[in-house]
Amino acid sequence: MNKKELRIKYKALRAKLSSEDIEDKSLAIANQAVKSDFWNKLYYHIFLPIMEHKEVDTEFLLQVLAGKDKEIIVSKSNFETRKMIHFLLTDNTKFKKNEYNIPEPVDGIEVPSAKIDVVFVPLLAFDKKGHRVGYGKGFYDNFLAECREDVLKVGLSFFEPEEEIIDVCKSDVKLDFCITPEKIYEIKS
């Protein structure tokens, strides 16, 4: 399937999920993540979900990261440049939803992309080769292109992978892993 078809399919599948489904599946994803071997890093970037779009609730992963004493990074999006500014999450971080209902830090200690070790990536769908489909704005592809070459890119998905996304671009950044409620997919290059 192509990206447009996959966006339609997975938005419809998400729409059918109840709030209990989202909570259960998000907890299962966090429990899978705990089994992974990428916890030896320090700086972890995590997205805060758009609840209205029924995204993976990352609250459980935030608790894991805090429990492992990791430095947690959250972002603010600039819709004119399609770039993100990254901030260290602290006890004093205040959040405000932007016009797209994305919870964002109001301000804080800025962290350069090059410092980030692991990025948890939101997505609508992914394939077995590590390609992903997001909302099509390119924010994460732009952000991941700014990161170090060895940054770990970890997708979070309620659903299992597609066989192949047929219309990938050179600028699409592939995942290293994708975590679903059932398993962790390690993507081989």
In short:
This protein is an alpha/beta fold.
Report on the architecture of this protein.
The chain is an alpha/beta fold and 189 residues long. It has a single domain, classed as Rossmann fold. It contains 4 helices and 11 strands; from the N terminus they run ααβαβββββββαβββ. The strands form 3 sheets. A 7-stranded mixed sheet has the order 3-2-1-6-9-10-11, sandwiched between helices. Strands 4-5 form a two-stranded antiparallel sheet. The protein starts with a helix and ends with a strand. Belongs to the 5-formyltetrahydrofolate cyclo-ligase family. Its cofactor is Mg(2+).
Tags for this model:
nucleotide-binding, 11 strands, seven-stranded mixed sheet, magnesium, ATP-binding, Rossmann fold, globular, alpha/beta, FTHF_cligase, single chain
The biggest sheet amounts to: 7 strands, mixed
User: How far is it from the N-terminal to the C-terminal residue, by CA?
Assistant: 21 Å
| Low-pLDDT windows of residues | none
Could you tell me the strand content as a percent range? 15-25%
Number of strands: 11
CATH topology: Rossmann fold
Strand and helix order: HHEHEEEEEEEHEEE
Strand order of the largest sheet: 3-2-1-6-9-10-11
Q: Bin the helical content.
A: 10-25%
Chain-wise SSE layout:
Blueprint: H1 3-15, H2 19-34, E1 43-45, H3 59-67, E2 71-78, E3 83-88, E4 95-97, E5 103-105, E6 118-121, E7 125-126, E8 132-133, H4 139-146, E9 152-156, E10 177-179, E11 184-186
Parallel strand pairs: 1-2, 1-6, 6-9, 9-10
Antiparallel strand pairs: 2-3, 4-5, 7-8, 10-11
Helix pairs in contact: 2-3
Keywords: ATP-binding, Ligase, Magnesium, Metal-binding, Nucleotide-binding
Pfam families: 5-FTHF_cyc-lig (PF01812)
GO molecular function, one term: 5-formyltetrahydrofolate cyclo-ligase activity
